[in-house]
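To whoever is on call:

I kicked off a structure prediction for a single chain this morning and the downstream step that reads the tokens threw a length-mismatch warning. I double-checked the sequence; it's 279 residues and nothing unusual in it as far as I can see. Pasting both halves so you can look.
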Amino acid sequence: MSTPGTTLVIGATGTTGSRVVSRLVAAGHPVKAAGRQATDVGGAQAVRFDWNDPATFDEALDGVDRLYLIPPLGSREPAAVMLPFLRRGRAAGVRRVVLLSASAIPSGGPAVGQVHQALPGLFDAWAVLRPSWFMQNFTGDHPHAQSIRKDGTLLTATGEGRVGFVDADDIAAVAVHALTTPRAPNTDLVITGPQTLSYGDIAAVLTEVTGRSVTHRQLTYEQMRDRLAAGMPAEFAELLAGMDLAIAEGAEDRTTDTVERLTGRPPRSFRAFVERELL
């Protein structure tokens, strides 16, 4: 492709979106930062965007040739709104799309897996990011961070299963590569940190680095589902609790070279992340 044009970043104030915006702006690329409140994100043009309001689509798409695409939160069937938007984007001049999915969801799988499957038929230049679980899940307002602060516990149905937890900064670095490299990846990219850790391992690192005792409390699938359902739609809670069971069965016990291969540097370790974020 030619020199990158304007990128529309959907979810521009979110965990990965904000990092993608800052990296693109720092590299001199024009960016439209999309969100429900059209919040200013340094150096980008703020624009209102709401998945539930198609009237916001055309202004957001005006003048852009690539998208960083974050699905609507909590939706079991995001394709119903995302695919019409992508078709509108193609008609408006979008030529490259980078979709944020998840390592646990393959092409054709549930939720955003349906968008993943459709993407190659809509665009010649594309990538699907499939990161493992975020290290940022243990900070901020995430339920894990809240339970750690409340009583020093991590509650999951993952058993002794291991996960290649990844820093959102590393995800954003891969996203920017996929958005701006002359040749689009045209594949899915499973993104992990440098090692796999159980939630018991996570608790041990948090305890050692912060000096505060953290333990992993193992729940049943039903307990995890019901806990999640207190704050989200029941069907989405079932999906997430099912992912915990998949972790327990070894589905996420893997690492990849994606970050180093595409960015030229190794992914950040969980210990380094904790030292940076929690000390």
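Update from on-call: the warning came from a stale cache, not from the record. Cleared it. Sanity check on the structure: The chain has eleven helices and eleven strands.
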